[in-house]
Backbone:
């Protein structure tokens, strides 16, 4: 008799923000493959919501909202718990990039608006999601996982606003891990260049620009990295599974897994 392989997340329930595309969507798919009982997904557009339901049916509950709103984060947590009965893992992932915009390329007025937008999504969005999910995660002794970036550790993966926002995410992970121990583990995954439709800020008029559409982006990233590759979203998903898994990461908190093709050891240009 064949014994079915049990997934690492058998029966777990997660909420993924920004799970309608890119890395977040790959995490949703992989968590379901690993046996998750259901996934809440917070998205920005009806199109993303429809696509998720078309692919995953009643394995997902989709909430539309803006991660900069506390009320929208709470609605997403509540919808997930109402549908699936609990919450084991929060994946804070929604983000916006700054297209390498250097400080002096922005006027003071642009900086004012762009700081609020980029920190609003990349930092405040994570803080609010953590607050909204806190009670449910303490109850389940679950975990939080935040998507950071090579820009959480190094310069050059964005402009000052993006790099500072991702460094702030690192501080947030450490502080929340400290505050939530021993009930809730708090960790992160730091991808490097990945083929996704990551967009630019509305405040710089770059909301229609997509990272994956930058000319020669894939070749340039691949050539500059020791592993000579640019990642696809699914290349990072296993790290989220590992960190979410109580059986396999029981003793792991305040850790960020770098999934960036070896940025640290890239050759000097
Ligand atoms: N693509 C890369 O090269 C790369 C590298 C390192 C880190 N990251 C990080 O990965 C995460 C996911 O990005 P991605 O590359 O998969 O791009 P993506 O654009 O496919 O995913 C980001 C998601 O966040 C959502 N989002 C943006 N602003 C939002 C808001 N205000 N409210 C709700 N949802 C919002 C978008 O709709 C989108 O679905 C981000 O945190 C990003 O900074 C990406």
Residues:
């Amino acid at each position: 008799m064949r014994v079915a392989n049990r997934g690492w997340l058998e029966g777990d329930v997660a909420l993924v923000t920004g799970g309608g595309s890119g890395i977040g969507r790959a995490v949703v798919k992989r968590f379901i493959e690993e046996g998750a009982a259901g996934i809440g997904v917070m998205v920005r557009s009806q199109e993303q919501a429809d696509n998720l339901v078309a692919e995953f049916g009643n394995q997902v509950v989709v909430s539309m909202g803006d991660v900069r709103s506390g009320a929208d984060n709470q609605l997403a947590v509540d919808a997930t718990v109402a549908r699936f009965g609990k919450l084991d893992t929060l994946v804070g992932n929604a983000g916006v990039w700054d297209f390498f915009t250097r400080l002096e390329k922005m006027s003071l007025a642009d900086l004012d608006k762009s700081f609020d937008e980029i920190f609003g999504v990349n930092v405040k969005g994570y803080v609010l999601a953590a607050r909204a999910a806190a009670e449910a995660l303490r109850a389940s002794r679950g975990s939080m996982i935040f998507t950071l970036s090579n820009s959480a550790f190094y310069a050059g993966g964005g402009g000052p606003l993006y790099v500072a926002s991702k460094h702030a995410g690192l501080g947030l992970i450490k502080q929340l891990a400290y505050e939530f121990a021993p009930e809730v583990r708090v960790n992160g995954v730091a991808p490097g260049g990945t083929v996704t439709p990551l967009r630019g800020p509305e405040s710089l008029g770059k909301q229609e620009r997509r990272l994956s559409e930058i000319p020669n982006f894939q070749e340039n990233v691949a050539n500059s990295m020791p592993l000579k590759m640019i990642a696809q979203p699914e290349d990072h998903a296993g790290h989220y599974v590992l960190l979410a898994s109580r059986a396999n990461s029981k003793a792991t908190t305040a850790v960020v897994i770098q999934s960036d093709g070896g940025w640290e050891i890239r050759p000097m240009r």
Remarks:
- The mean pLDDT is 96.
- The longest strand covers residues 185-191.
- The two ends are 57 Å apart (CA to CA).
